């Protein structure tokens, strides 16, 4: 089976022929139909973060496909089931995080396409308990971006406890941000979308954003304050300065939800203003299996649109370059057989 492999950080990925992986106990083998290109995969391929993967590895944590082979002990899935394989590839199920609904914080977790091979391949393994069933009516191509971009932004809005009539700032209208705008609108909020390209700001308007802010020309904090300040700001821009900019536009009691992970990023949080204004800074990482089930349910009900374009896996390096140049309208999804 073909796979796109990171052989060394910062080097182009290499398309290689690998033997079909054999599922171990509790695992399944999936014939991948579609696999989204999350900016995280670029961070992974570049070794951007303090905790690094170990090359060679196959990135990809928005893989969706059909169960092809069951490992020993797997009884709740059948051959032919369509499943998605998210970042949270496995959690222990026993620790305080897993037992209190926060499996995404499990310290034993294994991350797909980072700690184990992921979905940039024709076949992949998944732990059956974390292979998320894709409902009827949701295509593999559309389920792919929902598997990370969707669940992550849906969770970020839950973490922000967004209420109707609040003002939510979405900083970065890319793969994640285009869905964050939609979830914020579903939550009843007024949405201010921030980006640095005309195309992304236009996309945000098409998806329901009430206000758009061009961070190249406008003072993000001042514009937000002109609307009374944001109750919540979801930081999805791969740009360190964007975090401080949107934090400065919070309303008293507002929350900055940090999601994006620019390499070596830090944020200066002014102590006095933070205390005086009662604002908070929260980190948010992906979402649980339950969150993902809710994301799929919303999409199956026609409540969300996935904006994506399909590409062959062979275009992986050019696709990464286009994402880095900000030239992709929302999400690239590698088509590994979705149409067949
Ligand atoms: N915390 C998590 O669980 C989690 C999950 C998924 C992705 N991520 C991270 O989120 C980030 C975004 O991922 P993505 O796939 O949406 O990336 P993307 O490249 O598709 O989108 C990033 C967007 O940020 C915009 N942008 C760049 N500079 C900006 C600025 N100064 N102000 C406003 N917008 C700006 C770009 O134009 C683009 O639209 C990445 O760092 C990724 O690793 C985190
Ligand atoms: C800390 C890494 C979080 C990445 C989530 C999947 O994009
Ligand atoms: Zn991701
Ligand atoms: Zn655990």
TrEMBL record:
It comes from the Bacteria. PROSITE patterns: ADH_ZINC (PS00059). Its cofactor is Zn(2+). It catalyses: a primary alcohol + NAD(+) = an aldehyde + NADH + H(+); a secondary alcohol + NAD(+) = a ketone + NADH + H(+). InterPro entries: ADH-like_C, ADH-like_N, ADH_Zn_CS, ER, GroES-like_sf, NAD(P)-bd_dom_sf. It is an enzyme of class 1 (oxidoreductase). GO terms for molecular function: alcohol dehydrogenase (NAD+) activity. Keywords: Metal-binding, Oxidoreductase, Zinc. Residues 10-334 form the Enoyl reductase (ER) domain. Its EC number is 1.1.1.1. Pfam families: ADH_N, ADH_zinc_N. Belongs to the zinc-containing alcohol dehydrogenase family. This is alcohol dehydrogenase. It comes from Streptomyces cylindrosporus. The lineage of its organism: Bacteria, Bacillati, Actinomycetota, Actinomycetes, Kitasatosporales.
